[in-house]
Design a protein that fits this description.
heterodimer, A: Amidase signature (AS) enzymes, eleven-stranded mixed sheet, 37% helix, B: 51% helix
Chain lengths: 464, 61
Amino acid sequence: MNASSWVPLDALAAVRAVRAGAASAVEITQAALGHIEARNSALNAFTAVTAERALAEARAIDRRRAQGETLGPLAGAPFAVKNLYDIAGLVTLAGSKIDAERPPATADAFILRKLSEAGAVLVGALNMDEYAYGFTTENTHYGAVHNPHNLAHVAGGSSGGSGAAVAGGLVPIALASDTNGSIRVPASFCGTFGLKPTYGRLSRAGTRPFVASLDHLGPLTRTVGDLAVTYDAMQGADPGDPACAGRPVEPASPILEHGASGLRIAVLGGHFAGSGIAAEAVATVAKALDATRVVEIPEAARGRAAAFVISASEGADLHLADLKARAQDFDPMTRDRFLAGALIPAGWVLRAQRFRRWYREQVLTLFREVDILLAPATPCPAPRIGQETIEIDGVAVPMRPFIGVYTQPLSFIGLPIVAAPLRKPGELPIGVQIIAAPWREADALRIARALERDGVTNAEPALG
Amino acid sequence: MPYPIDIEAYVEAAAQLVGLPLDPAHRPGVVLNLERIAQMAALVMEFRLPEETEPAPVYEP
């Protein structure tokens, strides 16, 4: 490998190169920083580049290797994080102008620290929708993120910077968050893999919350191997997050090549049936996996509605003091939704929370008969920046809230999901959700790996 | 879906109740968004849940 021309597409390739001495961690870091410098102005994915820290971390890895010390599973792999993750010494923006007035974070977020301990090298912070309340990252304060496959289109949200940074070949790994679809939507629009683990699997300590009941963290990558090794490195109990379930570490990487055998796979119908390119993508994946059975999640539309109500209410409560004192400083893209969320009657929210319990029981019943469910990640490929409506079966509906129609009913009950990218020549990518039973992330990752190996998925970067 | 409630009047009164000053320029957007939320909430509220269905809080004493 020629380190100076190296494009940071594959984290495990970087790790192998560092271990073998084919490239130093410093060379790989410099290459990644060079690509960010060259390409970020077109994408607007990064809001901060931590070059000094990255080079110091890389030098430490090269020193450890020279001294014959054991290197971590991600030694020398560059990564970046959505700017709602605390980075020691930087102000955690969470996409907002208001939080820019806060003091710098004094410590790294828990899972960021885990990746650093595994040897990954932090190169920066990534753009997002304000306070994670959006699906398009058309951020008024920091600018829209552009889709690397077509700069006139959105990268998705709320982790739009994460999607664009990985799809554009700026970093092989980006950390993100997903409350209603914010990992799976940018993965779908940008054509990358994304993992939203089970609710409670990964600690959220040191990240700016949005909706405590529904917030998840997870990675976006270009390969399933990178997705699994990153996920494995971030697992572990943490009393710093009251929702972190404290499960034992259950590594997915060792069983990644086990394929689909023994897993009962079904396609989700009803609410998730989809149309057009989204339905075609699911059909392609189902065919490749020999999945012919169609099952339904009862009352999925109500599940989405309940997630919508809880999100608006909890999100507004979190920001109520600022909404009262300085509503004009919020992004106009989120402000009126936050304000409306502050006026929701308590009974609606309580009922939505009770519905969540009922709905969970229905889905767990379904998982007695199946292991994997397939559904579209988004109803369409990436819309244009500024697009207001989208045509669904001949009817124009408001574009932005509709993007989450297939992701929201699933994160609502915390299921682990891999978003896997498909792409036809000349078209924008679109993702398929590979949904597993709670705590069965490894099943979804195995399926994603089988699809990747068989050439069904396409996470080719856009390096234009 | 027509919503048989005067959302504008509700927004006005509820904002007063929670002490949320509303800039007149923001009000139409707030009304529109509360209408959307109300439509979503109607889907949840019209569904009959068994009485014994409790929420699933994380709280552990």
